[in-house]
Amino acid sequence: MKPILETIDLVKYYGSGSSVVKAIDHTDLAIWRGEFTAIVGRSGSGKSTLLHMLGGLDRPDSGKVLIEGKDIFKLKEERLAVFRRRKIGFVFQSYNLVPSLNVWENIVLPIGLDGRKVDREFVMGIIRRIGMEDKLHALPSTLSGGQQQRAAIARALAARPAIILADEPTGNLDSKNELDVISLLKSCVSEYGQTLVMITHDETIAQMADRMILIEDGKVVSA
Amino acid sequence: MDRRKLQRVALLAGLLFLILLAIGTLLHAAGEAVKEEDQQKLGALVREHPEYEDSYARIMGGDAPNETADLGEQIMEKYGYNARDGGAYRAVRQYLFLAGGILAGGVAAASLAVLLALRAQKKAEEERERLGESIEELRLREEGARERLVREEQETKSLVTDISHQLKTPIAALRMSLEIKETTELTEEEKKEWSGRELEEVGKLEELLNSFTQLSKLEADMIQIRPRMEEIRGTLAGAVGAVYMKAFRRGIDLSLEESEDRRIPHDPKWTREAFANILDNAVKYSPENTSVTVRVSWLASAVMIEFEDQGIGVPQEEAHRIFQRFYRGNARQVQEGEGAGVGLYLARRILEAQGGTICVKRGRRGGSDFIVTLPYNSVMHSVSVL
């Protein structure tokens, strides 16, 4: 079987000359469908840059990122945006909810952007799962960090992307909320048959993954 | 060409026909008006000068030399008339305006219809593309599940090898002990010591057999998780009860801390089994006269259960592997103790099948802290663990 997500000889350097930072240094990686992969490494090891490349948010200096065998950087900017919207859901450390929209509007926003009809029953199922039925009309600013992140997870799940990329999703949360959010992400992703790639510096979280990839200085040290 | 497209083409053709019919009718009416006026004029002229009847008829019938137009205009001007004010001219103008309007309206309507049709077509195409993608997605997911099954089946084949390998050690020890007793003159005390060791090995064999029974059930797809609404503390108490004697014999204080109780969806039988496996592991790798504490907390979307011991702990680099099948720690206590590396693997599978998780952290008082979560709202239908 082909991997759902693959990098081939991926390179991204920042700066030049003696101050060059090798954020991604000839990295080969394969992520399999339905797997929960944790990418672990110290801060500054190039994890976030890698995740941004996997999601097509940033272009590499050289090398390829293949999603379902398709080289995403060969796509035109416009096609890439559509492809990203349909295939990938993002969960960020800083939640990135739209402040002027309420919880429900935030969750269904990506579906609307794609010109699709909202499957209310499916989305409500997710909202019940994250335990926020009573917060549908609340604005993000009135929610706790844990609630905001759960809303952001619901937003990523609601559009039913094949892949969910999470960048330190619990970086701003205390340990109980962290566990809650991670277990939610993990079980939802497996319930809906999605592939989860999560960046974390926390090895306890990484234990819950099916596979752990360790990154050091832009290189995969162990997979 | 599908039915809808055919309908649209027919509609467009019909519209075009109607427009042409309307314009044709108008032009015909304009011609009629001109004809009527000519006849009127002829009639009036002949009434005034019946003697010129034949030349009037000839001229009005179309036999007028071209250069006479200028003369006509001059005469009209002389008497202050304008040809444009004439009745026929006005009627023709009106008819032409009407025809032009209908033509413009028709063209606008037709282009609008074409535009709408194109947009509908584009939307349908996008919808088809999306549908294709979803189907592909489903196919790939199914393929993934099938691949996993094949992989696990292959792993099961290695299970037999592993089991026989695991059984070898205690059986060899038993055989050695029995042979020594057979061939060597031993004092009563020595005999007793050997018998004690034999009993220990039999204990190990029993334990192994127990794990293998569980494992084979799991691999043979005999474990069906059937969640129902039950109090989670009841399930936990059952697990504590199952290991209590083992802990008691080793002077380990096993306690379930006070907390609120709630009903959450889980399979009580198999979840108890999972909890018992975690507790059994904690007791097994804890020194005598220590404690194992079970604590329940209620998170936003899941219950969190901690099993904290003062045992040997799990080294950080092994933490993510202890939940794998047949994985056994590298520590001396683990290598020497009985076990097949099945208990925690089974616990993880049972918990994950119910949307739960398990991980291990370093305990606050040394040892390890196994942390389990189970969601309040999960898939409430039964799932097979495999």
UniProtKB/TrEMBL annotation, chain A:
<dbReference type="InterPro" id="IPR017871">
    <property type="entry name" value="ABC_transporter-like_CS"/>
</dbReference>
<dbReference type="InterPro" id="IPR017911">
    <property type="entry name" value="MacB-like_ATP-bd"/>
</dbReference>
<keyword id="KW-0067">ATP-binding</keyword>
<dbReference type="GO" id="GO:0005524">
    <property type="term" value="F:ATP binding"/>
</dbReference>
<dbReference type="InterPro" id="IPR003439">
    <property type="entry name" value="ABC_transporter-like_ATP-bd"/>
</dbReference>
<keyword id="KW-0547">Nucleotide-binding</keyword>
<dbReference type="InterPro" id="IPR015854">
    <property type="entry name" value="ABC_transpr_LolD-like"/>
</dbReference>
<protein>
    <submittedName>
        <fullName>ABC transporter ATP-binding protein</fullName>
    </submittedName>
</protein>
<feature type="domain" description="ABC transporter">
    <location>
        <begin position="5"/>
        <end position="223"/>
    </location>
</feature>
<dbReference type="InterPro" id="IPR027417">
    <property type="entry name" value="P-loop_NTPase"/>
</dbReference>
<dbReference type="Pfam" id="PF00005">
    <property type="entry name" value="ABC_tran"/>
</dbReference>
<dbReference type="InterPro" id="IPR003593">
    <property type="entry name" value="AAA+_ATPase"/>
</dbReference>
<keyword id="KW-0813">Transport</keyword>
UniProtKB/TrEMBL annotation, chain B:
<dbReference type="InterPro" id="IPR003661">
    <property type="entry name" value="HisK_dim/P_dom"/>
</dbReference>
<keyword id="KW-0175">Coiled coil</keyword>
<keyword id="KW-0808">Transferase</keyword>
<feature type="transmembrane region" description="Helical">
    <location>
        <begin position="95"/>
        <end position="118"/>
    </location>
</feature>
<dbReference type="InterPro" id="IPR004358">
    <property type="entry name" value="Sig_transdc_His_kin-like_C"/>
</dbReference>
<protein>
    <recommendedName>
        <fullName>histidine kinase</fullName>
        <ecNumber>2.7.13.3</ecNumber>
    </recommendedName>
</protein>
<keyword id="KW-1133">Transmembrane helix</keyword>
<dbReference type="Pfam" id="PF00512">
    <property type="entry name" value="HisKA"/>
</dbReference>
<dbReference type="Pfam" id="PF02518">
    <property type="entry name" value="HATPase_c"/>
</dbReference>
<keyword id="KW-0902">Two-component regulatory system</keyword>
<feature type="domain" description="Histidine kinase">
    <location>
        <begin position="162"/>
        <end position="378"/>
    </location>
</feature>
<dbReference type="GO" id="GO:0016301">
    <property type="term" value="F:kinase activity"/>
</dbReference>
<dbReference type="InterPro" id="IPR050351">
    <property type="entry name" value="BphY/WalK/GraS-like"/>
</dbReference>
<keyword id="KW-0597">Phosphoprotein</keyword>
<keyword id="KW-0418">Kinase</keyword>
<dbReference type="InterPro" id="IPR005467">
    <property type="entry name" value="His_kinase_dom"/>
</dbReference>
<dbReference type="InterPro" id="IPR036097">
    <property type="entry name" value="HisK_dim/P_sf"/>
</dbReference>
<keyword id="KW-0472">Membrane</keyword>
<feature type="coiled-coil region">
    <location>
        <begin position="117"/>
        <end position="155"/>
    </location>
</feature>
<dbReference type="InterPro" id="IPR036890">
    <property type="entry name" value="HATPase_C_sf"/>
</dbReference>
<keyword id="KW-0812">Transmembrane</keyword>
<dbReference type="InterPro" id="IPR003594">
    <property type="entry name" value="HATPase_dom"/>
</dbReference>
